[in-house]
Amino acid sequence: MNKISKQLHDEINNLKNLPDSDIDTSDIPGTTDWSNAEIGKFYRPRKKQVTLRLDADMLEWFRKHGNKYQTRINQILRHYMDEHQKAS
């Protein structure tokens, strides 16, 4: 990580300590139409490394269908979890 200058460090601290009421937002347009908003678009859950035993043929099938097989397995498990949470 690059070190920042004392001047930049001081400027950042001053901005952190600035009360919200002193921030000029007049150049930011207000939003009233949220119909196209996407919930969770930028949400990325924290990942946790685990050891999981899978049937060899199932693991081979996922691997055969390309890289990022662990991500696909996670997506399938998340879909399963979401569907079962809706049913509860």
Give an overview in words.
The protein has a domain at 54-88. It has helices spanning 6-16, 56-64, 69-87. By secondary structure, it is mostly helical. The longest helix is centred in the last third of the chain and has 19 residues, at 69-87. The mean pLDDT is 91.
Topology:
Layout: H1 6-16, H2 56-64, H3 69-87
Give the helix tally.
Answer: 3
Structural class: mainly alpha
Report strand %: under 5%
Distance between the termini: 47 Å
Mean pLDDT: 91
Question: What's this entry about, in short?
Answer:
The chain is built from 3 helices and no strands. The protein is an all-alpha fold.
Core attributes:
88 residues; elongated; 3 helices; mainly alpha
